[in-house]
């Protein structure tokens, strides 16, 4: 195998995110429900026999810095496996940056999964997980490949069968820095574990808990830092009746009802985007029951 084309790297949403503690090293302990959505970056991989690793951006044709997550993921796997091959990584970036949707982490996870195939390693998922965690707290979720109740700093995953959902996602031009969020005096904390509060629950009540359970404890800090986050929340609430920030970024989502076959929600979001200044982006997304590359690790 010399190349892999059109490799997806889907985004995620945090349906809730609770801060439940802090480790001695400063990392915050979280509890969250992660779901995959059908908004994705696309990557192309071409094997090199000289051992060199290079990423290229399809948006402008230029070479990118060599310290990005895709390159770091490829190098980490190359070192861990002793593989003599290298790779040219071509990225078609569609996900907004600084959004809290896990775009960079998803790119890194898809890189590990793709090179696991391209380089003929055939490693099981458990062997890729430690590499992923060193790259970023969200990477193990994308390697896990399905909706999950996530704990710790992102490394403890409990897979869940989450009911299919549709979401309106909206983000302003500016992103948010994770460090600024977690150092903010407005950062909220949840006094009780989500497990104590009733999540995860039995399958018969999971659907009700998915719809509106909990909150995002990072949202008060984000709103204090960015007026665009507050504006996105207000716009989605006015149009769809609910809104919540995802992750530690600037994207906000609303849960939608029904199958949406009539296109009404798409038209509503398109109208909303037309009313906003240039640089805003948004999309109607559907949840995924599993990662498209889930079968690429044992």
Describe this structure in words.
The relative contact order is 0.19. The longest helix is centred in the middle third of the chain and has 16 residues. This protein starts with a strand and ends in a 10-residue tail after the last strand. It contains nine helices and ten strands. The protein is of the alpha+beta class and 298 residues long. The chain is globular, with a radius of gyration of 19 Å. Strands 1, 2, 3, 4, 5, 6, 7, 8, 9 and 10 form a ten-stranded mixed sheet that branches. α7 crosses α8.
Task: Give structural attributes.
31% helix, 298 residues, alpha+beta, ten-stranded mixed β-sheet
What is the strand and helix layout of this fold?
Elements: E1 3-22, E2 28-48, E3 53-57, H1 69-81, E4 86-92, H2 103-118, H3 125-135, H4 139-144, E5 148-152, E6 156-159, E7 166-171, H5 178-182, H6 203-210, H7 219-225, H8 227-240, E8 244-245, E9 252-256, H9 264-275, E10 281-288
Parallel strand pairs: 3-4
Antiparallel strand pairs: 1-2, 2-4, 2-5, 2-10, 5-6, 7-9, 7-10, 8-9
Major β-sheet, in short? 10 strands, mixed
Compute the separation of the termini in Å. Answer: 18 Å
From the structure provided, what is the oligomeric state, counting identical versus distinct chains? single chain
Which term fits the overall shape? globular
Strand percentage: 25-35%
Radius of gyration: 19 Å
Q: What order do the SSEs take from the amino end to the carboxyl end, as H and E?
A: EEEHEHHHEEEHHHHEEHE
> Helical amount among residues, as a percent range?
25-40%
Number of helices: 9
SS elements, strand count: 10
